[in-house]
Amino acid sequence: MAAKEDLLYKIWLSEQIERFEGNLMFLLFSADMVSYLEAFLSKGGKLPPGQRHQLSGAFCKLAAPKRFALEKINLALNATSEDNQSEYTSLLHYKKVLEDEIRQISNRCIKLIDDCMKDDDEAELKALYHCVKADSFRYLCECETGDNIGDIVKSALEEYKTASRIAIGNLNPTNAIRLGIAINLCIFYLYVANNAKDAYGIAHSALRDADAEIANLQEKELDGLVQGCLIQLKDYKYSIQKLFLSTESAEGVN
């Protein structure tokens, strides 16, 4: 088996194995998957359509436990008095460790995308690269509080908008990459930009366009990945309308 084909197989195998393992093995195989992806892309490899979601998934899964732990640490810090010096100091220590690890993963992903993105990449690949880079900036937003937070938020939004523009201009409304970009941009607007109306608008537009295409399809059977994306978008749209927006605000979205 050729070197690039071998790496492509290992990327696929890592994804398959992690589905059946516990938390420790999940982390190990996510780390392996990222390493295989880096090696594959650095050799000039381009992920085939059926495996492109793995680029986003690998870094997301590697960062997810650390992001979840950081969220819990922040909640604990808010509930702990600084007078309890021992506990408070320990929490601050773990907070810094987790933030450093998230920064390392995010910057590793951004560097990989910058190194392998080419002008002649096809539209789906370009859209994916910009979205994955935007996701990494979004993760950085969760662990930065200094003067540069504004620049990181701006970088994330610019990458998401570029990804969305490429996807809407070139990909079908039921394309899984296009739907995934809509989901992640919706998350960005809701939790980073604190803009529920724009988050709702993204979900609403993506579902409207997808429903219009599905209505005209002769084959009504959709790929499982696409079905999952549509369910997520419907959940976000419903939750945002119920928890963040009045009925009048939601009805004003085209």
From TrEMBL:
Tell me the leader sequence span. Answer: none
Q: Annotated site (Interaction with phosphoserine on interacting protein), which positions? A: R67, R138
Record SUPFAM superfamilies: 14-3-3 protein
Note the SMART domains from the entry. Answer: 14_3_3
Pfam families annotated for this entry?
14-3-3
Record domain 14-3-3: where: 4-242
The family annotation for this protein states:
Belongs to the 14-3-3 family.
What is the recorded name of this protein?
14_3_3 domain-containing protein
Name the species this protein comes from. Rodentolepis nana
Q: What is the lineage of its organism?
A: Eukaryota, Metazoa, Spiralia, Lophotrochozoa, Platyhelminthes
